[in-house]
Design goal:
Blueprint lengths: L1 E5 L9 H11 L9 E6 L9 E6 L3 H17 L3 H14 L4 H13 L3 H14 L4 H13 L3 H14 L4 H6 L1
């Protein structure tokens, strides 16, 4: 079971290290348990500014999805370095998780690590050739690397897969 609610992050209360410490001290290391464990509750009170992930760590798929969700939440809060670490943890559990490669690539783009982003998007495309967002990210990485012809080809492929993907039109 994975329940992730994502809202605006407020850096004053949001500390990614704390969440990682909770994971460590709660013993969520990839082993099975049958009891639900709250791994993060960042907001001091209910409201739109919260990130919450409740995970029943009953299997590796649940745990990899939890790490993927955590990476997405961290990236949404512009904590890209920590997001990369969360995606890496998800990928250590399942190296064929295309969405984690996609998230890792997006975080690396934000960190100006275009070579790493290129490799992550390339892996996501290999796993899911019909994932338009991976083609978009590949185009962004190619643009950052000043390989504009390849960037436009990747954008064209993204549009052929998902013509209404607005981000592609903005990047072209």
């Amino acid at each position: 079971m994975l329940d992730v609610s994502l809202g605006q992050f407020t850096p004053a209360w949001y500390q990614p290290r704390d969440w990682l410490q909770i994971l460590h001290t709660e013993g969520i290391t990839g082993t099975s348990t049958s009891t639900p464990t709250t791994v993060a509750s960042a907001a001091p009170e209910p409201g739109p500014d919260k990130v919450m992930a409740t995970v029943t760590a009953s299997s590796t798929p649940d745990l990899q999805e939890a790490w993927l969700g955590r990476g997405n939440a961290l990236a949404g809060g512009k904590h890209y370095e920590h997001a990369v670490m969360a995606y890496d943890r998800a990928l250590s559990l399942n190296p064929d998780l295309a969405e984690a490669w996609l998230g890792r690539g997006n975080a690396c783009i934000e960190l100006k690590r275009s070579d790493e982003a290129f490799a992550a998007f390339d892996r996501a495309r290999a796993l899911k050739p019909d994932l338009a967002e991976a083609w978009l990210g590949h185009g962004n990485a190619m643009g950052d690397l000043k390989r504009y012809g390849e960037a436009f080809s990747a954008y064209d492929e993204a549009l052929s897969l998902k013509p209404d993907l607005a981000e592609v039109w903005l990047e072209r």
